[in-house]
Each structure stands twice: as structure tokens, then as C-alpha cells.
Amino acid sequence: MSNPRYLTKSRFKMALECPTKLFYTGKKEYPDQKLTDTFLAALAEGGYQVGELAKCYFPGGVDIKELDYETSLAKTNDLLKLENVIIYEGAFQFENLFIRSDVLVKKGDRVELYEVKAKSYDSTTDSLTNSKGIVAKWKPYVYDVAFQKYVIQNSRPDLKITAYLMLADKSKVASIDGLNQLFRITEDDRNRTVIEYNGDVSPAALGERMLCTVNVDDICDSLYSDLPFEAGDTKTFRQWIHFYADHYQNDQLLQGALLGRCGKCEFKTTPEQALQGALNGYKECWERSAGFAAADFERPHILDLWYFLKKDTYIQNGKYFMSELTRADLEAAKPKPNLDPGLSRVDRQWMQIEKSAENVPEIHFDHSGLRDVFAGLTYPLHFIDFETTAVAIPFNKGRRPYEQVAFQFSHHVLYEDGRIAHEHEWLNSQRGIFPNFEFIRQLKAALESDEGSIFRYSNHENNILTKIYEQLRVSGEPDRAELCEWIQTITHSTSNSTSSWKGSRDMVDLWDWVKKYYFAAECKGSNSIKAILPAVLNNSDYLKAKYGQPIYGSSIPSINFNDQVWIKLDDKGKVVNPYKQLEPVFEGIDEDLLDELVLDEAAEISDGGAAMMAYARMQFSSMSVTEEQRIRKALLRYCELDTLAMVMIFEDWRDRLSRHGG
Description:
The chain has helices at residues 9-17, 21-24, 38-45, 47-57, 69-79, 139-155, 217-223, 237-249, 271-275, 281-290, 311-316, 327-330, 345-358, 367-374, 436-447, 460-473, 480-490, 510-517, 529-538, 541-547, 591-595, 609-620, 625-658, and strands at residues 62-63, 84-94, 97-107, 110-121, 129-130, 133-134, 160-169, 183-187, 193-197, 211-215, 364-365, 381-391, 403-414, 420-427, 454-456, 508-509, 518-519.
């Protein structure tokens, strides 16, 4: 007997993203390219620790571990016969709807429903709503708990349901050390996640509560009203629930609107899957809704246009291809002249469109612009890269949920005579410590011996250092004044800083230079270093000749490589991306999928997801010494390649300038 096709809370969330996904999901013939290893995703986000901590705040509950519908429903119903009971993962079914709730607290005929989310919330200042309604970033979580409450109160009308979101409260400060080390995460022999307690987890022993509860009953009541779900909608929230449920139950396709979100569709096939006969849900949507033929999928699509925020508007108006756009389409409503050196946003977008239309492989290289900025550099040049995370449950007493944690850096030096060396690296793999202050001490020691210019790639390093500055400023570290003063010399203040400054040695953003002075069509609009590096290598005879020899880790000092040859060609004569030459941090999982979970503030750079998850695994999950050493080695090699990639980009540019008069 096949399982019933219930609309669950995860499927409801999927339907709200795009209803067509309900037809594709769970079918082997439609491969799902999203990260399938939910263990790693939740581990990095802090979901397991936060979920388990929530249970500890409601001790004595019964955990319903059975996964099948029938058994979990029967056990839940039996427990609800008790006058008072706490249930973890309680199951409820109403018609063709099914949910599992994180925590239920029953007292008589009153039930408190807690949906636990590993998301940060300041209980003193934040709100789920504003004058326009539900705050956009909270909508998925509010809709989730509203869906659950709807199912419970309709399946059990005899109970009075009060619903809450339970969130990591960033206004709280941990009152004990080692809170996050109380929860050890592992997988059993059936690949199910198991939480092992590592000490006393009674509410009294846990100290200050790190999670807050936010009542959502009023929001739920407004959603359950007869008003349209969204402005201009034809259905109410309740009607949409049953509309989606009925279509899913009957396996009927709902065609969603084509929008910019389609670029991130997980139901695309890889070339290998296509050869094996797999169906491509993404292509089917464009064939049905836009009449695409096979050749249209080869044309440069508007979805691939860099940083174009008007994709929805043009797609809805039937403009799908870059060739259909004019330069005026790219301009803001009130365009301003570009007074800064280099390419503007519109310049870069238009260049992408023109080079895509012409199918011209030539790069754009601004000799004049780069010559000007090169003139302001001081040798030796330093190239640094950080790996960071934000831990849900604090490491130490005095720390807050989701504070930034810097756990690794790599440092290359390029001397004026052309010598290159990977001179320093640091990686904290010690469990349960807050590494930021030692990170700064080690970074300072690596960089303070001269006044050479320091390169970073994106705003990330500056943002992290300014956050550590604020952490240090209020700490009890004996050298805090010295460290804060040094941080100010290599950074500039941000809008969140308590004071204003611009350091005499403020770091240079190589990412900013890439956007202003360099363009390669093969990057397809991406400015990620993982896209820029192979483009630079493919277009540089100088780098091909140099790094086609086994010099890296021999004549060029390296901490993690020996006699490495970086230039390897595929069957089309293109350079194999050096990142693809490394052993993966997690076997069997594409690092690109991990990186897509981690976007920078401008949603442009998505690197570092694998490192973040690896660090979380080293900190919070049980693993063998061999596995820990393997992950540590992979982390060190990846971070070293990040700073080497910066060096290679700079070397190519310096070579081009030298061949054009300096």
C-alpha cells in the first residue's frame, strides 16, 4: 500500500515558493539538485542544537520517533488523552494535511504549540510585523506555524491552541560556559541524526534562557480570516492550503509564474542525468509557459544577467533573453552619471549582454584604471582570506547567539621582485572555545612586520574585523586596547560601528577591482573568485606557463602543497578549475551546493559554505580522529587556494600592465 499524499508543512512551504515544485518533488524521474544532506545543512545553521535546547526548556516530554504516518498519529492521540503532557514531534492529520510539531505542551484542554527555528531575533527590539503586515523575512516561518495550528485545531477542535515561534534571542547573554558543547550530534546506523547530551541539561543548569517565545495567535487569526492571502489575491490562506493539498493528493500539476526565482530552481538536470533520461522540471516549465524550443535554452537568458533586480518585471512582460534588453532597460528610474573610475553596474551589465550576443571570448581589461590603482600600492603585498560562521548557541559565558566567529585565515605574500610565499595560516579546531581573540592575535602577528598593502576579496573581511573590534572593546582581554588599535589601522568603520574611522592601511578590495576593471564572458556574470580564477587562467599565457610546472610547494613556498601543478586542461583545452582539483571537504557532495547556502550581504558572493559546515561538524558532531584530520587538511588547502587565487589574479594583471608600458 502506497503512502498517502499528504500536504506537509515542508510541502506547503515549497508550494508557496513555487506551486509547480509540488508536482516534481519526490519523483525519481525529476532529480532535485538541492543539498540533500540535511544533516550538514542543519548542523551549520545550528538547527539541531537549537531544537534540542528547546526540548530541554520543556523537560519530561515524550519524543515520538516513529516516522510513519499511522504509528506517529496513534501515539500522539494516546498521549493527548493524558490531562497534562509534553510531546516532542507530535503528529496531526486533518483531511489531506499532515504535520509534526516541534514541542507541544498540554495542560487540560489547552495546548501550547512551539515551532522552533534556528533564526536570530532580538526580543527587545524586533517584531514579526510592521505597518505593512508580516515582515518579509519572517513570512516563511509565520506561515509554517500558522499551517500547523490550522491542522491541529481542525483535527482536535476540543483543544484550545496557542501558537508560538521559538527563536534564538540575540539580546540574551550566556551565563554559563560550554553551553553549545552540551549537545553532541551524530548519526546512527540508519543515518538518522542522534543527539547525545554531554553534561547536565536541566533548565537550572542551562543558565540564562537563550531562546525566546513569540506569540503568533493574532497573526494566525488574521491569516485565517476571509481576506485575500496576499494583496490582489483570489484566495484566502485557508483556501490556498486546501487548493495545494488537493492538487498534491491527486498529483495534478500547477504551473507557477515564471519569475527571477526560476534561476535557482532545484529541478534542473545535470548533463549526466540528462543522458540517463532524467526529466528536467525547469525546462518543462519554460516549454509550457514560454514556448521554449531546445535552441532557446542555449541563448543567453535574462536569469544569468549579473545583479539585475528587474528580472521579474521583464519576464512577466515576455522578455526572456539578454538580446531583448536595451541599455535603457538596465538604468534606474532616475539614472545618475557614473563619476567613479571603472565600470558602473550598468556598464558591466551591458558589457555582459554585448559580449554574450557577439559570442566574443575577449576579456575587458582596463589598463588605465588598473595602472592608477596599482600606483598606490605598497610592497610587499598581503593577500588574506577568512572563514567564519555564526554559532546559534554561544561558546562561552558572556557571548550572544549568532555572534560572528572567525575560525580560520590564510595569508600569502607577494614581494616586489615577484617572489611569492604562503607564509601564514591559522585554523582553530579546538572544541568549545570562542576563537576570535586568538584569531586576531595570530593575524596581527602575520601582518604587522611591514606596511605593505593588504588585499581581501569582498567586504567580508572588513565586516568581520569590525565586529571582532566591538567584541574586544567590551571584553576583559588584557591586550584589548592594543588589538583594537591595530584592527582600526587595517579596516574602516561600518554603519554598525560605535565610532568612525578609516585605517591608514585600510584593506584593498580585489573584488571591487574585478567589478570595475575586469570582465570575462565565461564567468556568466559571476564575480565569485571560484568563477574569476579559471577565467583569468584561461586567458593568461603567462600563468599557464608558470603554474603548468610543479613549482607550487617547491620554489614557491606552500604550507599544504608539494610540487603542485595547477594548470591541467580538459578535453576542450580549457583549464580545469583549480577548486575542482582539490579533494572535497565532504565526500560525495558538490561544494557549489554548499556554497549556495551562504550569500554575502549583497547576495553576490557565495563562497565558504563547505568550510562553515566542516567547522560546525568538527565542533559539534562525533567523528573519528582520521575523519577530523581529513577535514582539517581539506579546510587548510581550500583556504590556501583562496589566497593563492588572489595572487594569481594580481599576477595576471601585473603581467598585462608590464606588456603595455608599465
